[in-house]
Design goal:
Strand content: 15-25%
Structural class: alpha/beta
Distance between the termini: 34 Å
CATH architecture: 3-Layer(aba) Sandwich
CATH topology: Glutaredoxin
Radius of gyration: 14 Å
Strand order of the largest sheet: 1-3-2-4-5
CATH superfamily: Glutaredoxin
Largest sheet: 5 strands, mixed
Order of helices and strands: HEHEHHEHEEH
Number of helices: 6
Length: 141
């Protein structure tokens, strides 16, 4: 049930391997690929796209157990423009879902994509991994 509910206060304090709740709040997630492309050009950083859903249990699991690991968090926060696109709710849900289908030929959640600063596809990662090294390898460019 933990994966369905929003993370409780202090959830990130499980062990020394995880970031604090304050560290998690510092990271800026955009909700627009267009905005991310402009920022990627300005900063010369690649884009990390997170296709997610409000009702996606595996998405919450990845956020709580992989994204919250200190090394993964550091890489994501420092090396990428982060974009979270919800496909099952919100004002842009239909637009986000169509982007995922048309550009990446999938509706899988979670679905992660790395794009170059010039919006070129680099690689993707579908589903969850309980192996932090596997996800770290995905983030390595």
């Amino acid at each position: 049930m933990d994966s369905v509910l929003p993370p409780p206060s202090g959830q990130y304090l499980i062990s020394d391997d995880f970031i604090s709740e304050e560290e998690a709040k510092v990271v800026k997630w955009l909700d627009s690929l267009e905005e991310a492309k402009l920022l990627a050009q300005a900063t010369q950083k690649p884009i990390f796209l997170d296709f997610t859903g409000y009702t996606c249990v595996n998405c919450r699991w990845m956020e709580q157990n992989i994204f919250a690991l200190k090394d993964i968090h550091k890489t994501m926060a420092e090396d990428f423009i982060l974009v979270r696109l919800y496909t099952d709710g919100g004002q842009r849900a239909e637009e986000n879902l169509q982007l995922q289908i048309e550009r990446f030929n999938t509706v899988a959640l979670p679905f992660y994509v790395l794009l170059s600063k010039d919006d070129q596809f680099l690689k993707s990662f579908s589903g969850i991994s309980r192996n932090p090294e596997e996800f770290a390898d995905f983030l390595a460019l």
